[in-house]
Amino acid sequence: MDFLADNRIRLNITPSSNVLLGRVSDIEKHPIAKLYRHGIDVTINSDDVLIFDSDVSKEYLRLYQSGCLTAEELDDIRIKSLGGNQP
To answer: Are 15 and 30 within 8 A, CB to CB?
Structure first.
């Protein structure tokens, strides 16, 4: 994780897809929170809409409702994803 943070490598995360494909046990325990809190640049994305019944708004909502990330953390991710808060 230090390598990712130190080298500013962005991870494009698809939470619902990760859960439905069995890569993560459930949304509440998704590692995106640990990655983000470690200083890794992450974006929240959706996978195939027809297969996973998701879009970016639903992904943000699911992460918030599950308690995985706070509203403030999600907003920070959103702003950074749009190119804001650049050093």
So the answer is: yes
Predicted TM-score of the model (pTM): 0.89
CA atoms lying within 13 Å on the CB side of residue 66: 21
- In a domain, residue 87? The reply is no
Provide the domain limits for residue 40: 2-81
The rounded percent of the chain whose pLDDT value lies above 90 is 84
Domain count, the chain: 1
CA geometry: angle at 17 spanning 71 and 72, to 5°?
Answer: 10
pLDDT of residue 21: 93
- For residue 76, pLDDT over 90 is answered with yes
- Burial class of residue 73, CB neighbours in 10 A (0-12, 13-18, 19+): middle
